[in-house]
Amino acid sequence: MAAILIVEDDKHTRRLTGARLKPYYNVEEAENGKEAMDILDNKHIDLIIADIQMPVMNGYDLVKRLREEKNSIPVIMLTAMHTFDDKKMGFASGTDDYLTKPINYEELLWRIKALLRRANIASERKIKVGEVVLDSSAYTVIKGDRTIDLARKEFELLYKLLSYPGMIFTKTQLLDEIWGYDTKSDETTIKTHINRLRNKFEGCQAFEIVTIRGLGYKADILES
């Protein structure tokens, strides 16, 4: 079970958030950034939820300190402030996500799950969906007991879609991110590679690549 550190000086909010998360995660609590750093020195934490306005060490300074120490632990900023400049400052400090108060706890759980998934992918450089395993360190795809041969761009396209299941990517986004901004390839290239992937994973029960007409493509997970 993943460990979540809640850093919040308001006792009521801290305890309520902890109570909402404890059915799904191991929860640690701190009243400010300094206490959080002490906990991080002694315990393994997978994700931090931090308020901004706190005494001793605020949320911005906590995240800056972590990033200066090359600590890439995912951080969700949780705050009552919601102007563009507030969010800009939060992301500039190195936070990964931003949620404003009052807290929608269902949305918070979604965001935690998404960040933990991405952190796991980034650290292991692998994605496992059902019996399909993509290893980006070796550009290999294993399905059950056999290897599926993919061209490099096919692999990168599939890895991108499966890294963000349910997210719709436009053809332009995929061209820019995988082929590069200066590519001479066009949207037909994306369609061709999508068709190749569908053919190679025909009958796969782990995921499917879905066309969103007029928008682009997404990957839906069928079994995890």
Automatic annotation (TrEMBL):
<dbReference type="GO" id="GO:0032993">
    <property type="term" value="C:protein-DNA complex"/>
</dbReference>
<keyword id="KW-0010">Activator</keyword>
<keyword id="KW-0843">Virulence</keyword>
<dbReference type="Pfam" id="PF00072">
    <property type="entry name" value="Response_reg"/>
</dbReference>
<dbReference type="GO" id="GO:0000156">
    <property type="term" value="F:phosphorelay response regulator activity"/>
</dbReference>
<keyword id="KW-0238">DNA-binding</keyword>
<keyword id="KW-0804">Transcription</keyword>
<dbReference type="GO" id="GO:0000976">
    <property type="term" value="F:transcription cis-regulatory region binding"/>
</dbReference>
<dbReference type="GO" id="GO:0006355">
    <property type="term" value="P:regulation of DNA-templated transcription"/>
</dbReference>
<keyword id="KW-0963">Cytoplasm</keyword>
<dbReference type="InterPro" id="IPR011006">
    <property type="entry name" value="CheY-like_superfamily"/>
</dbReference>
<keyword id="KW-0805">Transcription regulation</keyword>
<dbReference type="InterPro" id="IPR001867">
    <property type="entry name" value="OmpR/PhoB-type_DNA-bd"/>
</dbReference>
<dbReference type="InterPro" id="IPR039420">
    <property type="entry name" value="WalR-like"/>
</dbReference>
<dbReference type="InterPro" id="IPR001789">
    <property type="entry name" value="Sig_transdc_resp-reg_receiver"/>
</dbReference>
<comment type="function">
    <text>Member of the two-component regulatory system HssS/HssR involved in intracellular heme homeostasis and tempering of staphylococcal virulence. Phosphorylated HssR binds to a direct repeat sequence within hrtAB promoter and activates the expression of hrtAB, an efflux pump, in response to extracellular heme, hemin, hemoglobin or blood.</text>
</comment>
<dbReference type="Pfam" id="PF00486">
    <property type="entry name" value="Trans_reg_C"/>
</dbReference>
<protein>
    <recommendedName>
        <fullName>Heme response regulator HssR</fullName>
    </recommendedName>
</protein>
<comment type="function">
    <text>May play the central regulatory role in sporulation. It may be an element of the effector pathway responsible for the activation of sporulation genes in response to nutritional stress. Spo0A may act in concert with spo0H (a sigma factor) to control the expression of some genes that are critical to the sporulation process.</text>
</comment>
<dbReference type="GO" id="GO:0005829">
    <property type="term" value="C:cytosol"/>
</dbReference>
<dbReference type="InterPro" id="IPR036388">
    <property type="entry name" value="WH-like_DNA-bd_sf"/>
</dbReference>
